[in-house]
């Protein structure tokens, strides 16, 4: 069991930093093996496909901000809700936007890891 509440409090910042940098190795450590992402248009990505976007160079962030984050813990799991703002390019296409994001964070092997993320567009640019 994780006894350091600060690790959970720091998790959203560590995740956002790794996303901003496109740091595949840091993200590999932060995501569960069965990680699932639901994108803003309903597509689903597993861990490998999430990481491949960075490893291939297809996804590049000029800016990536994770704000208005609240984290609620439920035993060995937690839910984080926040706003993701990004200036990004994917395969040459503009992906700038703002999204309401829900993360499911779980305790695994004494560490907090991201098991799922769901993005919904807010309409703001």
From TrEMBL:
Protein source organism: Actinacidiphila acidipaludis
Domain DUF4440: 13-114
Transmembrane segments: none
Protein's UniProt name: Nuclear transport factor 2 family protein
InterPro entries: DUF4440 (IPR027843), NTF2-like_dom_sf (IPR032710)
Pfam family, one: DUF4440
